[in-house]
Structures are given as structure tokens and as C-alpha cells.
């Protein structure tokens, strides 16, 4: 009876908390205790819908709740739970104005050519590779994307399509898998299947819990790849836990490093279980805004990248987000040939097949990390396990 009263009080606390108040992530260390708490919450939710501001991830045994609800759980379970702030996280992107005289809906944007994707299409177009794109959603009416968009999920408004009200997710989707032919644009992997996972609102902001639930959804729905173009400056135990679960499930996570122009980078790209991406300009030099350092696994085009936009349009943007979609597209090309390739092996191949960067004055190659993405070399090296000591052709 005492336990039942606790959960009644807890439910009232979470239901009465302000919608825009502070939030917490409560992770259970013991599976049995999590199962018990989940059972109590589910029973009360059935009696008192809609159940308040509570969400759960069974993948990492976590409750996402208002701060007042987290305090009650911490008092009840003590050291058996870990509590962290559910902070806001932002997209990685910097908008660039269209260049004079350039067709913004160009069939082959410069980045697609730079990574030699067209030459790779004779080997693979990424057919049926399932890519979870955790972002702002997608424009389902865009003619260049209609062929590649699966339903996905809207984490902000369950039951609704993950429609893009920002534009960032649509831009990422275009570089990944657009197939507009001569009247639109082509992406890196034009026959991949994209599953938009809408975790970010119209302003490009999300809670860490939204990201955790997005990765959880991708694992439960067996995505082959996850594209993540956002970051935060501090570590999150819950985010790292779910990244590790995806890694152990064999799903590579490709993440943007950030646009601070500094040595270092943001999380989750800093986690060793992800593939960290930096941005290049048109001269195969590291873009001035891109983060850099030894932890960067590969660089890809990220400066003045033209791609799909809202209302069936096109737009140029710059950022490590744009670079990340090139890398995810190239990975999709490879996974169509090598389904089940492990995250570790994919990272190794991306590093091994990258082209040397063009250095600026005073730069050292070792201080920058990986090289420039080359989709053709990636497919040649990764199509089948290479013989020991055999290097990919240029």
C-alpha cells in the first residue's frame, strides 16, 4: 500500500509540473528495480491518461521526468539510480547565402562530385540501406525526396508524420539520398531509405532525452546507419549509454564534430563509439569553422553545400552537419555491398581510404585527424575483406 501511495504522489507531481520547467534523466542501475518502476507507472497511466510528462527508454532503463519527479525517485531508490539534467542540445549548422550565378538546385552539387560518388554508383547506389536521420524531420512533398522517405517517427508529437518545420533535416536528407534527375539534385546514395526521426523543434533545439529516444527507436527498428548532426559541450551518461547500445547492436553512428573552428569537438562525436566528421571547403582544406583534431575520423564537403529545402526548394548551407550527410551517404553505398559491416570496421575503412588533406600554412596533418572522404576508394577497399597489406587503388 505504501508503494502504491508513493506512485500516486509521484504521478501527481509529474502531472502538475510546468511544461517548460527543468527536466531530469533518471537511469536505473538494477534491471529488476527498473522493471518494477515501469510496471507501476504503466498501471497508473492506464487509469489516469495521459500519464503526465513522463517518457521512458527501456534500452538504457531510464525515466525522463520533470525535476520534482526525479527528486522523488532519487529519494526512493537512493544510489540505485543516477540522475542527470536533461539539457537542451542544438543542431550544427551555419546558413550560407547562395553564390551569385550558381544554380542552387544543381543536379550534382560540388560535394557529391568531390567525394567521387558518381564514379561509385556503378558499384552501389545504397539500395535498401535503412538510415535513421535524427533531426528536424523532412519535407515529404519535395520531388527529389519522395522516392527515399519512409514514415520514420515524430518524437515531439507521437502519431504525426515527422514533417520538417525548420529545414535542416530536409537539407541533410537531400545530400544523403536525393534523386531529382536533371531537374533537381542527386544525393550520395540515391537508393537508400531514409527514416526521419523528428527530435528537434522548429528552432533546431531538443532535449537530450529526445536524442536518446531517437537512438532507441533506431535500434528497436533495426536501422543500418544513424546520422546525427548536432552536439553539446558536456558529457551525458544517458546519451553515451544509448550510443554504446547502438554500437553493440552493430549500428554505426555518424556524428558532426561542431562549428567552433577549434581543436576539439562536441559530444556525441567525441565518443569513441561514433564516427566523427569535420568539414572541408572546396579546396580540400579544413573549413575555417570546422572543429578539428586527432579524434576526427574523416572530413567531407561542408562549405556552401546546396541541397533540398522546405517548400520543394533548395538552399546552400555550411557546417559540419553538411559534411556528416556526405559521410553517411558514402557509408550507405558501402553497406549495400557489405550488409552487417561493424561500426568499428566502417570507421577503420573510412580512415584508411581517405585522401590526404591540403594543409594551410602552419598546419600539421597529424593534428587534424583523418583525411578527405573518397567514396570510390571506400567501395573498392570495403567491397570485400581486403588481403593483408593490400592498399586501395587511388
From TrEMBL:
Any one GO molecular function term: metal ion binding
Peptidase S8/S53 domain segment(s): 128-357
Active-site residues, Swiss-Prot/TrEMBL: 135, 168, 321
Pfam families from the UniProt entry: Peptidase_S8
SUPFAM superfamilies found in the cross-reference section: Subtilisin-like
Record-annotated membrane-spanning stretches: none
GO biological process, one term: proteolysis
Keywords: Hydrolase, Metal-binding, Protease, Serine protease
InterPro entries found in the cross-reference section: Peptidase_S8/S53_dom, Peptidase_S8/S53_dom_sf, Peptidase_S8_His-AS, Peptidase_S8_subtilisin-like, Peptidase_S8_subtilisin-rel, Subtilisin_Carlsberg-like
Keyword Mitochondrion: no
Record family assignment: Belongs to the peptidase S8 family.
Protein name, UniProt field: S8 family peptidase
